[in-house]
Amino acid sequence: MNSTQQESWQFNAIKQVLVALAENEYLRKCLVFKGALILNQRISTLRKSLDIDSNLIEEFIEEHPRQEQQIILLKYHLERAISRHFERQDPVRFELKKIKIVPSPKTKHPLGWNAFVITISLLDHENLDIRGLPSLTIDVAAPERYSKHSFSELKVGQTKIIAYTLERIAGEKARAYLMSLPTYRDKVDKHEKAIRVKDLYDLALIVRKKTISNKAFWIAAGNEFKISSESRFVDCFGSTTFLENRHLAEELYRKSPTIPKDIPFEDVEKSVLEISNYWTKIGIIPFSYPLPTQFPFDKI
User: Hey, CA dihedral for 98, 50, 174, 169, is it positive or negative?
Assistant: First the structure.
């Protein structure tokens, strides 16, 4: 299986896992789904997401404050949901082999930003001769601040999940990109993260579907950007913030094997500047959020 086949296999398998999670009532109540896979559901895109992104619901944390209990409950319902979904297929193609849940960070975060990385191993009866099939990943982040525009129902398979709205996705994509830039990484004393150029592609894609003239959408998206940035102490001073390391971003964008080639970097940059300039015009930005006095630099 070459890299293209492997990517296609992961994409199809992770979509099946998302349907499985949607069929489980318990998981629907404790997770809100987001990320590129949800963006694929909200609007048509050529970019293939190879994992599932989600956040824990605050009520789940309040009901089960101990991280150990959270892991037990999530593992039980994930195994139940995925196994049942695959067993109902005719013919049965996939079989759940193993689920592993690892806290991220490994020790509890002093600010409560406790997350999990879930790794899923499958057996594929159509590819029994292939050894070392890639594992699938579900990222489960800590709860964040939300507004009435942050999430809504989204149909997946035959049921509905709670997922980020397109407005929230746009705002979080902008925040995630800024969090990967050197200024933010220096602020929190972390330097190993790569610039997330895929988020620039997603923002440009959203602009194609929702032009800047759609004021109601971009006002709501700007508010989501500001709300999500505050929760992670992200600063934004306008277009100059988004243009940091512009030449490196362009190089990474052009060389990325996972970003589709339908939107050139010049169009991406134009879209991002349109967004930041509009948010500046309506007073969403600039903003700055200082770190707490006792910020746990090694835990972000």
Answer: negative
